[in-house]
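2024-03-11 09:14:02 DEBUG pipeline.ingest accepted 1 chain
2024-03-11 09:14:02 DEBUG pipeline.ingest length=227
2024-03-11 09:14:03 DEBUG pipeline.predict start
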Amino acid sequence: MLGTNPLGRLFGPNPFSLLKQHMRLAKDCAEQLPALFGAILEGNSEEIARLQGEIDRLENEADQVHKTVRQHLPRTFMLPVDRRDLLDLLEMQDKIANVTQDIAGLLVERQMQIPSGISEPLMPFVRECVGVVRLTATIMEEMDELLETGFSGPEARKVSEMIDRLNDAEQESDNTGAAVSRALFAHEDQINPVSVIFWYRLLEWIGDTADYAEAVGNRLRLMIAQR
């Protein structure tokens, strides 16, 4: 509860708690993607519309938390880490939700169909990227413990090890994404040329969810290294 935190009583909402809340929303947003692609494979237009609406709702909620964090992170707030690093971390989190909304919007607005040649490697790629986002959200749940220990000591080492696993998971998603791109290239002549262009963009955006999640972890590692 923010109201029971002494920092919150003195300065307003605790920005670290808000950062965790924002990351949870970004994760929840990205976690809609496997179901969305599954609904497109099944041609379930009702479920597609429902999932796009849920992504929009979560992204809008994340935007509100994003604004609140920026409003309650004044230059006079006493922080154990650089204010600019926290803002950079916040922006990376926000991009996860934003690019998820972009993916859903493009899929629905263009009524895109998944080419049969990429459907098999595509779903593991989506799930792996979401898994990277989920791992980042787990790491962000350690923020309170990091704050208590001044971003140093055993807790900092624990988080650094979690970030190592995050980097490995992101690399695995890159490898799977490359396999999807190769499959798309192999089937280009069977797909409308305009659709090919948009599918390469979609694959890039899907990979961006994992890239931004990894960037959150790396920014957190930098905060630890600076202590």
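2024-03-11 09:14:41 DEBUG pipeline.report Confidence is low (pLDDT under 50) at residues 1-11.
2024-03-11 09:14:41 DEBUG pipeline.predict end
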